[in-house]
Amino acid sequence: MRLPYIPKDPSFPDAEDQAIVSRVKQRRGSRGLIELDRALLHAPPIADGWNSFLGAIRTKTSLSTSIRETAICRVAVLNKAWYEWDSHAPILLSGHGVTENDVSAVLKTPPRASEVKVVDEKHSAVMSYADAMTLDVSVPDELFARLKKSFSEKEIVEITATIAAYNCVSRLLVALDVGEKNAQNGPTIQ
Question: Which residue numbers delimit the Carboxymuconolactone decarboxylase-like domain (predicted)?
Fold first, then answer.
């Protein structure tokens, strides 16, 4: 990491900052603070907003684990955010109907591939959508029409917010080298 991590059990003199630590710990449960939290807590109000927003993305959408994690893992691959990949690839593999071949496809399919073969058409559309949002920002109408065939308006907003949020996550992870993964040429899970 390019900055020192905050201690695993920080004690801030400001009561509100300490309350933020408690909220982050509560969301993390028995895992306690992870390296990402220990980086963000250099700026407690940012850590607080992050905790709330990413907590909603991870636990309060209607998306299946496999759809959510396909989006997150694809963003990680595109941005070479291997800390993110190492954290989320096992969660993707735990998703209903997801095989090791599907996880490998998320990892190895070239960006902007015309044909994506992962789980099914819904997952393939999400992967292509993540490619467009991450690499081009602008999404072609044909690709958006593909999403509309498989997902409700609510789900499309949730997928879009997930991809956008994890682009933010990956950029912070890579810029600060959280988890000391920037030197990797690829994921540790294959």
Answer: 44-107
